Amino acid sequence: MRAEIAVRRLDEGWEEVMESVAENAARAALADNRFTAQGADFAGFEIAVALADDTLVRDLNARHRGRATATDVLSFPAVERPDAEWLVAAGGKGGEAMPLGDVIIARETAIRDARALGLPLAHHLAHLVIHGVLHCLGYDHRQDAEAEEMEALERRILARLGIPDPYATAAEASADGMNRKGMKG
User: Residues 176, 116: contact at Cβ < 8 Å?
Assistant: First the structure.
């Protein structure tokens, strides 16, 4: 049994093929992280990925983060800082999938940022989904050490998917308002 990945296109502007890009990226992030390195698996858990538009993401960002702007990706972890004990205790209870969290991607912002970075949209979407799933697993980038750990993990996961390092391009795009993560927020 594997983790359930629920991908929904809430905005028809997303090409249908992007659903499989998002699912593969989420699955890759669940397959390579500090918990799987400790022998845990995610059977009995679910990640929901919504391919949305800027309007929905702006509304969610304003409601939950107090920022009335669109951003490329929002993550809503089910547990703020899950640990291996929680994963073992919560996984597969009662036959229903236990949510790990939700990841929402804003189409217009993702397209604009992919263009600014000179990346194919599918590569940027995969990166955003991986980034969001890692947030749902308790990773963060507020501290430099955390950011370095998260970036290294993102690079490794992306490489396994055959996607080049987006941070090399992000450094070049920093003058365009991108942060060192190649993301807006």
Answer: yes
Nearest-5° Cα angle at 137, 57 to 139 = 85
CATH number of the domain at 4-176, please? Answer: 3.40.390.30
Strand-pairing partners, residue 50, are 8, 104
The tokens describing 133, both together, are 């799933």
Look at residue 6 and tell me whether its pLDDT is greater than 90. Answer: yes
Averaged over 78-85, what is the pLDDT? 74
DSSP summary character for residue 97: P
Give rounded-to-5 percent helix, strand, coil for the chain.
50, 15, 35
Residue type, 40: A
- Compute the half-sphere exposure of residue 70: CA atoms within 13 Å on the CB side of its CA: 16
Which H or E element spans position 183? none
Confidence of residue 142 (pLDDT cuts 50, 70, 90): confident
In the predicted model, what is the mean pLDDT of residues 129-150? Answer: 93
d(C-alpha 42, C-alpha 46), whole Å: 8
pLDDT given at position 122: 98
